[in-house]
């Protein structure tokens, strides 16, 4: 999307603001998988429960499986409950992410949650990453304060022009700040609408202990389970740039959503102290000059 906006487009955007941005709420009870999603690959590695509310993605030696939303969104709240592959899941990665492209486009924006499997009894890690115009390399890795294979937990993303926050069970685990919400920059995804994806695949060349632990295919199929997808966001409509962020409409665009609340800050401080095991902003070997977004404070 272009950055310069002509007065005519601005006017149009203002006129359409009233009618723009219907919120799509897709709670597990009212929505069928097929209303919101398409399978991207391996239809036969996807299953639902009888009532359609719980979804299973499986990986075996042949292939994994993935799905994506039919719609694109720009700004809002995106949430899903996941229960990850139990037992020996070394080398198995389950991903839940947002991306502006359906493939690995060279200019894509992307927000990732990746769940890195492990040997039985060893801790799962979550890895998050942010891509802007095809450039990622902004990994953080966290341990969790629970076993994510035992039960469903929610994994959510809040996205507005001020920040992107990754949540686990409503606890902020990563805050990715924007510098000046009105000015485009080279690190904060805000122009391109994104689809939501999930997939399971094999990555035993890097995922578990840096690739030392290989997938034990005798344990296949590896299954990740999903339910209660929910989106409270602006659904993108072509051809006009819809989903213009303003301070007067949706809750995710309002002042209270521009920063963490005091209690969220407390939790976030605890997470940073106790559960972060990798932060690219602290990796001076990899980034002798730290990327500029690393200077931004999440505490404002
Ligand atoms: C897997 O377990 C090992 C040993 O406890 C740990 O060092 C590692 O961080 C865990 N996770 C991954 C994804 O390697």
Automatic annotation (TrEMBL):
GO molecular-function terms, A-Z: hydrolase activity, hydrolyzing O-glycosyl compounds; xyloglucan:xyloglucosyl transferase activity
Signal sequence residues: 1-26
CDD domains: GH16_XET
GO process terms (BP): cell wall biogenesis; cell wall organization; xyloglucan metabolic process
Glycosylation (residues): 118
Entry's localization field: Secreted, Cell wall; Secreted, Extracellular space, Apoplast
Main localization category: secreted
Keyword field contains Transferase: yes
EC number: 2.4.1.207
GO cellular component, one term: apoplast
EC class (word): transferase
Record-linked Pfam families: Glyco_hydro_16 (PF00722), XET_C (PF06955)
Active site per UniProt: 110 (nucleophile), 110 (proton donor), 114 (proton donor)
Keywords: Apoplast, Cell wall, Cell wall biogenesis/degradation, Disulfide bond, Glycoprotein, Glycosidase, Hydrolase, Secreted, Signal, Transferase
Post-translational modification remark: Contains at least one intrachain disulfide bond essential for its enzymatic activity.
Family per record: Belongs to the glycosyl hydrolase 16 family.
Summary of the function given for this chain in its UniProt record: Catalyzes xyloglucan endohydrolysis (XEH) and/or endotransglycosylation (XET). Cleaves and religates xyloglucan polymers, an essential constituent of the primary cell wall, and thereby participates in cell wall construction of growing tissues.
Designated name of the protein: Xyloglucan endotransglucosylase/hydrolase
């Amino acid at each position: 999307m272009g950055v310069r906006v002509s007065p005519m487009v601005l006017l149009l955007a203002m006129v359409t603001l009233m009618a723009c941005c219907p919120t799509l709420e897709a709670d597990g009870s009212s929505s069928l998988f097929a209303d919101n999603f398409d399978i991207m690959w391996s239809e036969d590695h996807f299953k639902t429960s009888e009532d359609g509310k719980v979804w299973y993605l499986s990986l075996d030696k042949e292939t994994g499986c993935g799905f994506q939303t039919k719609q694109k969104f720009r700004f809002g709240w995106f949430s899903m409950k996941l229960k990850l592959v139990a037992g020996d899941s070394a080398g198995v990665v389950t991903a839940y992410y947002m991306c502006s492209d359906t493939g690995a486009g060279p200019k894509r924006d992307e927000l990732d949650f990746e769940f890195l499997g492990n040997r039985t009894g060893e801790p799962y890690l979550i890895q998050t990453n942010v891509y802007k115009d095809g450039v990622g390399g902004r990994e953080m890795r966290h341990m969790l304060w629970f076993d994510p294979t035992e039960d469903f937990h929610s994994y959510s993303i809040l996205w507005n022009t001020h920040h992107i926050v990754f949540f686990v069970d409503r606890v902020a685990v990563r805050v990715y700040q924007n510098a000046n919400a009105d000015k485009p920059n080279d690190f904060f995804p805000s122009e391109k609408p994104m689809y939501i994806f999930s997939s399971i695949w094999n990555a035993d060349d890097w995922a578990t202990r840096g690739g030392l632990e290989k997938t034990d295919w005798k344990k296949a199929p590896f299954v990740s389970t999903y339910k209660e997808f929910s989106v409270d966001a602006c659904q993108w409509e072509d051809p006009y740039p819809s989903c213009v962020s303003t301070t007067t409409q949706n809750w995710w665009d309002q002042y209270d959503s521009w920063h963490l609340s005091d209690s969220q800050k407390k939790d976030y401080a605890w997470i940073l102290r106790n559960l972060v095991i990798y932060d690219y902003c602290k990796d001076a070997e990899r980034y002798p000059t730290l990327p500029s977004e690393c200077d931004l404070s999440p505490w404002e």
